[in-house]
Write a structure and sequence with these properties.
The protein is of the alpha+beta class. It contains five helices and nine strands. The strands form two sheets. Strands 2, 3, 4, 5, 6 and 8 form a six-stranded antiparallel β-sheet that branches. Strands 1-9-7 form a three-stranded antiparallel β-sheet, covered by helices on one side. The protein is rod-shaped.
């Protein structure tokens, strides 16, 4: 009895699978591609800052330069707890030998700002106190996941509009979607025009006013959709 039930279930499953495949092949459908893309300006800009006694030629200690830097950043309304990070958390200061027994200390920071204008102000403020070893690091967009989801939805909408236009030309109606697949999706890495910007060795009387401008990040999605033809 158990064997008979097992065979019956197996036969039913096989027939059901064949029926589903047959129904899909037999029903008329239209297959279209849709795509959408957008550009966005970065709102997360990271700076690499190195405080070194070598840059000040021994006139100021790392501790003094650090204190001045924190003061200048606070004047720009920068949240030090959320936006300033010690690059090497394993040790507070790095020391190295230079010219025999002379020891110079250095410290590395990562600073997060949200606008190019703020980044420019930071450069000028730090240069004015003798901190000139500054690099522009990575740049990102804070809501990239939400934007990618939006672009995918626009691509599907574009596919539907294309399908409707084609079926209308044939005096037919578009039915429900029976298949949706994302065929391609990408986010181009954001690169700044001054991606390797470094201000180093400038005197306190010189001003650094680089023309900071960032390429926009491109997000694109391509989809494949099949609709039933009624």
């Amino acid at each position: 009895m158990k064997l008979l039930i097992s065979i019956s279930i197996l036969c039913f499953t096989s027939l059901y699978a064949q029926s589903q495949q047959k129904n899909f092949i037999d029903q008329p459908y239209i297959e279209v591609k849709g795509s959408a893309d957008t550009l966005v300006t970065p709102d997360l800009l990271y700076m690499d800052i190195t405080i070194s006694e070598e840059d000040s030629k021994g006139r100021s200690s790392v501790e003094e330069l650090e204190k001045q830097m924190l003061s200048e950043l606070e004047k720009l309304s920068i949240d030090l707890e959320k936006q300033l990070f010690v690059a090497d958390a394993s040790s507070n200061f790095k020391s190295y030998f230079l010219s025999g027994q002379k020891v110079l200390k250095t410290k590395h920071y990562n600073l997060l700002v949200y606008k190019a204008s703020t980044l420019g102000e930071v450069l000028k403020r730090l240069q004015s106190i003798g901190i000139a070893n500054i690099n522009l690091g990575k740049t990102e967009y804070s809501k990239i996941d939400d934007l990618q989801t939006h672009v995918k939805a626009k691509a599907v909408q574009g596919a539907k509009l294309s399908a409707e236009a084609m079926t209308k030309a044939l005096d037919q109606k578009l039915g429900k979607a029976i298949y949706i697949s994302e065929s391609n999706s990408y986010v181009y890495p954001l690169q700044a025009k001054f991606s390797s910007l470094q201000v180093r060795g400038m005197s306190s009387t010189e001003e650094v006013t680089p023309e900071l401008s960032f390429n926009q990040i491109e997000i694109k999605s391509e989809v494949l959709v099949r609709f039933i033809l009624d």
